[in-house]
Amino acid sequence: MAEHPTGIPIQLEPLVVRVLAPNASPYTYTGTQTHIVGTTDLAVIDPGPDDPAHLAALARVIAGRPVTAIVVTHHHRDHSPATRPLQTATGAPIVGAAPFALDDAGARADASFDPDYVPDRVLAEGDSVSGDGWTLQAIATPGHTSNHLAFALPETKALFSGDHVMGWSTTIVSPPDGDMAAYMASLDKLMGRDDRVYYPGHGEAIEQPQRLVRGMLGHRKQREGQILRLLREDAMPIPILVSRMYVGLDARLVPAAARSVLAHLYDLQTRGLVREQEASWQIAA
């Protein structure tokens, strides 16, 4: 898309450059955004897919400067595969989200897992990497995936939100690795912060992050209420719930909606509000 050029560095602020990968899709929007932090030495956040054109674009931005860390928010194939050729090119360690192997028999509605992702250092809540004039502090934000991390840049009060909070859509929460209760708790955690701006993995920078996060919490609570109202009418399988809840939805996004409805149902089931019987869901007695 002309308005979203791939491979062109965009200076978001003095410490942050964004490069868009050429992997646009109904699930990645215009593509995965790689963020390069620093001036004299660098961190590369979510280098994206193993795409030669994207790697060449990153090399042009790096321009021979030392890379202190290749930082990963989570292990989906649109975020982490380029860690390996980038490490070969720069010698930098891969740090961030824990590795995770999952045999998920359910329909994948978002980018699938990167089975070859192996970090040199796993970061947990409060861990950090730093360079000349910058620090990236890990914030555990599970929900979209069990190992999802966001990264705060305290020098400018920016937050790299990965896929937990995006600039174009609510994130997919796809069980069993995705967990709706964890996702909501992670949104609550971000509400307690005072970050100035979010730089997401997909979509534009979020200039009023607290307002957006509040709206996302409200949206998920609205969907939960919608499910409960429908199940009070009658027991329903997930495809019927999706057709009633997402009228006019692009057919390509129906699998994603079904996975998020399932995540809501699992959360409601854990809370004793609904139960499953013979492939249908109903209000718990």
Strand element count: 14
Q: Might you state the CATH topology name of the largest domain?
A: Metallo-beta-lactamase, Chain A
Radius of gyration: 19 Å
Tertiary shape = elongated
Biggest sheet strand order reads: 1-2-3-4-5-6-7
Could you give the distance between the termini?
51 Å
Stretches with pLDDT under 50, minimum 5 residues: 105-111
User: What is the share of helical residues?
Assistant: 25-40%
How many domain modules?
2
What's the mean pLDDT score?
90
Q: Which structural class matches the secondary elements?
A: alpha/beta
Give the full name of the CATH homologous superfamily of the largest domain.
Answer: Ribonuclease Z/Hydroxyacylglutathione hydrolase-like
GO molecular function: hydrolase activity
Protein name: MBL fold metallo-hydrolase
Organism: Sphingomonas ginsenosidivorax
Keywords: Hydrolase
Chain-wise SSE layout:
Blueprint: E1 10-13, E2 16-20, E3 33-37, E4 42-45, H1 52-62, E5 67-72, H2 83-90, E6 94-96, E7 121-122, E8 128-131, E9 134-140, E10 149-153, E11 158-162, H3 180-191, E12 197-200, H4 209-233, H5 238-245, H6 254-270, E13 274-277, E14 280-283
Parallel strand pairs: 4-5, 5-6, 6-7, 11-12
Antiparallel strand pairs: 1-2, 2-3, 3-4, 8-9, 9-10, 10-11, 13-14
Helix pairs in contact: 3-4, 5-6
Pfam family, one: WHD_BLACT
Domain Metallo-beta-lactamase: 30-202
Keywords: Hydrolase
